[in-house]
Amino acid sequence: MLHDNLSINKEGHLCFAGLDTVLLAKKYGTPLFLIDEDRVRKNARTYINAMRKYFGGDSGPLLASKALCFSEMYRIAASEGMRTDIVSPGELYIAHKSGFPMGRAFFHGNNKTDEDIAYAIECGIGYFVADNREELEEINRVAAKKGIKQKIILRLSPGIDPHTHAKISTGKVDSKFGSAIETGQADEMVQLSLSLENIALDGFHCHIGSQIFECEPFCDAADIMLSYVAHVKESFGFEAKTLNLGGGFGVRYVEEDPYIDYAENIKKIASHVNAKCEALKINKPTVLMEPGRSIVADAGMTLYTVGTVKTITGYKTYVSIDGGMTDNPRYALYQSKYTFEIANKASEEKVLDCTVAGRCCESGDLLGEDVKLQNAERGDILATLVTGAYNYSMSSNYNKIPRPPVVMISGGVDRVAVRRETYADLARLDV
Ligand code: LLP
């Protein structure tokens, strides 16, 4: 099957992380998010070990928690000794509340408010990934008031187009994120950072995009960033200690997607970085990466119950399920492809060509078109595979649909990590 945490048991049921998904659907109800904790940890360790081995020093991955955010994820990241990337005061709150060591958290965002900045400093944030001039000045002001020197790294745009979906490509010169090297604005930010009394510049960051399957765009980005490090050393006498290359490695969602060996790719990027540092005569920085999708995507699955199966004669068949764009907006937003299985008929042949539709009052509420499925009937359990990334974290209450719970599986034991929303939860903010 697509990933090795998937199998079919002798009842012909789809199993995930060693457990029968049909039984899990019965136990917890649907829709239901499943997260294979052992897979999250395994993916994390792949990065941790490869980055330590090939980049050396204190190099390592930050969990890009926007891909899957709830308290237990921060506890897992902390127990693996990972750093984390957070992008909003909400993520910051959950990380802090869950006991994540905040000195190991990096605060991202292109528009942090004054309140965000004050709150992050109050929580003892390790680093700001500073995006713009206004932010730097505000960090400096708050840090001065507190009598501290706040560590930052500067987000730069290296001007790379990694050939991924336009909405998830972020490193181009005209991106809303960071300061462009090409236009000279990066230099202005460096000079400003170095001049501000209560700011300690530690290094640079870039993120070129998401769902990238080759290491070349990362090597290209590293080239540009390291040349920039050399330029800054030469021009301003500052040598970066940290280089954060962002996230973005791709994940296999459907059979047509390639397999990707993350450790092998990290090895290639590292040998590229090491050679470049030597050529430029700069010290090897601590290299950070920010994987989200490649840590959590294949650790996830969503289960639904099939309701209506409607064939429009001569046109198409809709298989409607009890969730949809509210728990997985990725097809509606990016036409992202997924693999689907009827979990209780997983060993049967896929004979049905269909469109998988959600329950929202919105024609665009689809999970997939031109989907091949086992014969589907009301009451069947439909599984969407590889939904660990950007599903739960992008879920909404549109049409006042409650969010599904998240059940984690570790060592063959399931437990609730996030409970199901109730109708009362939906009304709790109304006055
Ligand atoms: N670092 C930064 C600064 C980022 O902006 C992102 C993702 C990551 C790391 C993690 O990238 P990953 O390893 O997960 O590719 N909602 C979209 C993805 C948006 C990605 C935004 N930034 C989706 O569902 O495909």
Which runs of at least 5 residues are low in confidence (pLDDT < 50)?
none
On the 0 to 100 scale, the average pLDDT is 96
CATH topology (level 3) name of the largest domain? TIM Barrel
Number of domains: 2
- How far apart the termini lie comes to 49 Å
Which range best describes the helical content: under 10%, 10-25%, 25-40%, 40-55%, 55-70% or over 70%? Answer: 25-40%
Cα shape: globular
The description of the largest β-sheet is: 9 strands, mixed
Which ligands does the model contain, each kind named once? ligand LLP
What is the correct CATH architecture of the largest domain? Answer: Alpha-Beta Barrel
CATH superfamily of the largest domain: Alanine racemase
Q: How large is the share of residues in beta strands?
A: 15-25%
Top CATH class of the largest domain: Alpha Beta
Task: Give an overview in words.
It is a single chain. This protein is an alpha/beta fold. It folds into 2 domains: 6-36 and 297-427, Beta Barrel (Lyase, Ornithine Decarboxylase, Chain A, domain 1); 108-291, TIM Barrel (Alpha-Beta Barrel), CATH 3.20.20. The chain is built from 12 helices and 21 strands. It has helices spanning 21-28, 37-55, 71-79, 89-97, 114-122, 133-146, 185-195, 216-236, 262-280, 293-296, 330-334, 423-427; strands at residues 6-8, 14-16, 19-20, 32-36, 60-64, 83-86, 105-107, 127-130, 150-157, 179-180, 199-205, 242-244, 286-289, 300-312, 316-321, 340-342, 352-357, 366-373, 381-385, 406-410, 413-418. Strands 4, 14, 15, 16, 17, 18, 19, 20 and 21 form a 9-stranded mixed beta sheet that branches. Strand 20 and strand 21 form a beta hairpin. Helix 5 (114-122) packs across helix 6 (133-146) and helix 8 packs parallel to helix 9. It is globular. The chain starts with 5 loop residues before the first strand and ends with a helix. The model has no long low-confidence stretch (mean pLDDT 96). Bound molecules: ligand LLP. Residues 64, 67, 85, 108, 168, 170, 207, 210, 246-248, 290-294, 330, 334, 389-390 line the site of ligand LLP. Ligand LLP binds at residues 64, 67, 85, 108, 168, 170, 207, 210, 246-248, 290-294, 330, 334, 389-390.
